[in-house]
Structures are given as C-alpha cells and as structure tokens.
Specification:
Radius of gyration: 18 Å
Largest sheet: 8 strands, parallel
CATH class: Alpha Beta
Distance between the termini: 18 Å
Number of domains: 1
Shape: globular
CATH architecture: 3-Layer(aba) Sandwich
Helix content: 25-40%
Strand content: 15-25%
CATH superfamily: Ureohydrolase domain
CATH topology: Arginase, Chain A
Strand order of the largest sheet: 2-1-3-8-7-4-5-6
Bound molecules: manganese (II) ion
Number of helices: 10
Oligomer: single chain
Length: 315
C-alpha cells in the first residue's frame, strides 16, 4: 500500500459515484503535508466576452473521474512520489473582482507557506496574476511557460488594470516574471495592431505563434524551452483556448487555428524535469460546451501537468 493519497479507482467505486474532487482524491482543509495542492478558482468576473468559467473547476473535477493513476505512455506514476490532495475552491467574492484577486493571493500564499505546489483549476485567466504575486513572494521572479491563443498583455480594459486580458503585462511590470525566460506559445487570432505581439517581444518574451507550429511536433520546442529555462524556477499557465475550438469549444474567447491535444501533450511531457513551482489550467467554460469535451481535455492535461511536477527528495 502506498504511503501517498491515491485516487479512488474505477474498479472500486463506480466513476459516477464518490467525491467530486480532482480524480476523487481526498479533500483536505489546508495544504499542510502536501507536495501538490489541487485547488479551484470558480470565477468568471474577470472575463471580457463569454462567461461561464465559474463552472470550470467543478466540471474539470467531474471529468477527471475517468483518469487512472498510471500514465501508460510516459511511465509517470505521480501518486507514487507526490502527496496530492484537493483543497477545494477558493472562496472568491463573486461581486468584486479586486477583492477576489486579493483573496486568491492570500489563499495561494498559504499553500506555498506549507511548501506545496499549487495546481489550480480555473476560472478565468485573471487568477494567474495573484498566484504569480504569491509565487514571486516565496520564490522571487520566475520563468514562465504560458500556453494561450492570446498574449494577455493589454494595459487596461474598460479602465480596469487587473482582468483576464492584462495578466502578463502586470506580471512584467511588477517583476513577478523573468522576461527573457517567458515563453508564450500558441498565440494567434486578430488584434488591434502589430504591437499586440511586438510589445511583449520588446520586453524580451519569447513568442511562438500558432502558425509557426501548425502541423508540427512540439517535442523539439519543449526541448528548446527546457534548455533555455534550465534550473530556474518556473510557473506553467495553461489557457485551454490555446487549443483549437474543435477540441475545446467551451471557452470564453475562442480563436480558430489552434493547437491539437497531442501537441499540448507533447509540450507538457517535454517539460518534464523543469523546476515547476506552480501551474494552472484556466478558461474552461462548460456552458459553451454541450459535449463536455473541453473539461475532459482540461482534466487530462492537468493530469499531464501533475505527472511532470518535481518529485521531492525523501530520506
Ligand atoms: Mn489567457
Ligand atoms: Mn486566451
């Protein structure tokens, strides 16, 4: 019997039964004693087009009941080496975006204070800013792998400086991230002008647009990123709209011509070995996805991310 928490197996309790936690792991109150704390941020008040990501964490957890603990293709067995549990949802203030941002930072700060890696299920992309603030407080500025159709580097939206489209400009301004170790992957779609992508390039960010990687394996790109980041601590932020809407229609701001699930898997798997200190899976909007496939893809990619999180050395 393993010393670590195990997901409830589908041969022990029917998949449609049991707790509504990620992979039906135990739900715990705090991150004390955990290597990885799965947490939900059920918010959509920072989004600019379609809403519904408030239902993302619940639906990702529901679809995760299908996932088995052993990664047959990669050999990863995360629950043999990591103590993982679901610490539930952040108690956001759904009437107040600024307050919600403060609450998420305090919550993440507590997780990091226990030495756990936060693996966050969203929720709109706003949530990554307060998480990065807490991460920078504990670890200093970090490298960033950001997979998204969008750069999320607007200055203001409707006069608001902190929302899902401004996250990485704020993170850059506040020195939460190391600009030359930022990788934004999958960018595409229409913009307001060339500066939309040129501005982050001028800051030193490495941008890989979707057309540059259409029809290609992302394993070589993952190798390049791994070499460039090296042993620097890194945060991984995965916006589900990086995928093509054919695979992930349930999202707030869909853009055609996106990544495929195999590309996403190659990318994540190829990052194994990085010193990841936090990760998120954001922008899943179940109401725009009658098939449920978006949350299914998100749950599986969250599992792929879990599979590459650094394993603590134990005596
Ligand atoms: Mn985004
Ligand atoms: Mn996006």
């Amino acid at each position: 019997m393993s010393a670590f928490n195990q997901p409830i197996g589908g041969n022990d309790l029917a998949r449609f039964a049991g707790p509504g936690t990620f992979m039906r792991l135990p739900q715990v109150e705090t991150a004390a004693g955990l290597d990885v704390a799965v947490m939900g941020v059920p918010m959509d008040i920072g989004t600019s087009w379609r809403s519904g990501t408030r239902f993302g964490p619940k639906q990702i957890r529901a679809e995760s009941a299908m996932i088995r603990p052993y990664n047959i293709q990669t050999g990863a067995a995360p629950f043999e080496k990591l103590q993982v549990a679901d610490i539930g949802d952040v108690a956001i203030n759904t009437f107040d975006l600024a307050d919600t941002i403060s609450i998420i930072e305090r919550w993440t700060d507590a997780v990091l204070s226990h030495g756990a890696i936060p693996l966050t299920l969203g929720g709109d992309h706003t949530l990554t800013l307060p998480i990065l603030r807490a991460v920078a407080k504990h670890h200093g500025p970090v490298a960033l792998v950001h997979v998204d159709a969008h750069a999320d580097v607007n200055d203001v939206m409707f006069g608001v400086r902190e929302c899902h489209g401004t996250v990485f400009r704020r993170a850059y301004e506040e020195n939460l991230i190391l600009p030359d170790k930022v990788w934004q992957i999958g960018l595409r779609g229409t913009g307001y002008g060339p500066d939309d992508f040129n501005t982050p390039r001028d800051w030193g960010f490495n941008l890989i647009t979707a057309p540059e990687i259409w029809h290609r394996s992302l394993a070589p790109l993952a190798d390049t990123i791994k070499q460039a980041i090296g042993t620097t601590k890194v945060y991984l932020s995965y916006d589900i709209d990086s995928l093509d809407p054919a695979y992930a229609p349930g999202t707030g701001t869909p853009e055609i011509g996106g990544l495929t699930p195999p590309q996403a898997m190659e990318l994540i798997r190829g990052l194994d070995g990085l010193e990841i200190v936090g990760a998120d899976m954001v922008e899943v909007s179940p109401p725009y996805d009658p098939s449920g496939n978006t949350a299914l893809v998100a749950a599986n990619l969250a599992y792929e991310i879990l599979s590459i999180l650094p394993k603590p050395k134990r005596s």
